[in-house]
Description:
Elements: E1 2-7, E2 10-15, H1 34-48, H2 58-68, E3 76-80, E4 83-87, E5 92-94, E6 96-99, E7 109-116, E8 123-129, E9 132-135, E10 145-147, E11 158-160, E12 169-176, E13 183-184, E14 186-193, H3 200-293
Function: Is an adhesion molecule necessary for normal myelination in the peripheral nervous system. It mediates adhesion between adjacent myelin wraps and ultimately drives myelin compaction.
Subcellular location: Cell membrane
InterPro entries: Ig-like_dom, Ig-like_dom_sf, Ig-like_fold, Ig_sub, Ig_V-set, Myelin_P0-rel, Myelin_P0_CS, Myelin_P0_Ig-like
Amino acid sequence: MHFTCEHNSFRTTEHLTCPDSSPGTPQSGFAPSPSQMLWALALGPAMASGAPSSSPSPILAALLFSSLVLPPAQAIVVYTDREVHGAVGSRVTLHCSFWSSEWVSDDISFTWRYQPEGGRDAISIFHYAKGQPYIDEVGTFKERIQWVGDPRWKDGSIVIHNLDYSDNGTFTCDVKNPPDIVGKTSQVTLYVFEKVPTRYGVVLGAVIGGVIGVVLLLLLLFYLIRYGWLRRQAAMQRRLSAMEKGKLHKAAKDSTKRGRQTPVLYAMLDHSRSTKAASEKKSKGLGESRKDKK
């Protein structure tokens, strides 16, 4: 295939050699890249028609732009716990969720695989497809797996019942949500114990929670004591102000009463003085009359 591109005052010639359909045919030149193929498709009709300055097809140009500029679709992302602990004879939930740039498809599928501790090969123990769960009926987890997921909520969790020491190992969750089928799986490690040990994080969280609870309790007691003290101070202040008002009122009454009694006292004093003077004059008159008789 031969293309000749002409632009203003210079001419460029590009030779693209397409592979022959028959096998074993030697190829010459170089293999075209996707962008070169798109340019060839865009420029082919214009060059074939003989137009020296024709523009490429708008649709093909947009296709070329999207292939060169727009980023590829994001891959599906699967999430699981890093590790889970369970006691012998109990049950444990293996959580699996995912993120996808596409809507949840009717063809969505979940696959759980199990690799025993120290083993090299992983075996499929559970599969969900077309809205139906398929549980392994032959292997180690026969009749012990329960599907508790919901694809509508992007949940592919399962429950393993009646745990045993032989269940120790790595479980892998794989999700396909067509057309979004490219992505990494996620793994969770299961540890089965006679008695589930208390993890360091749980102990640390309990200690921190206890310290915070004690601090909050002390703060509450402090505010209650302060509130009671303030109320008592306010009550005492009201009583003192009431007592001061009562004393002032009593003093005002006493002063008013004394002001009323002062003229009476003066009148009584004047009356007693006048009475005394009259008695003295009378006694003097009687004495003089007695002298005259003599």
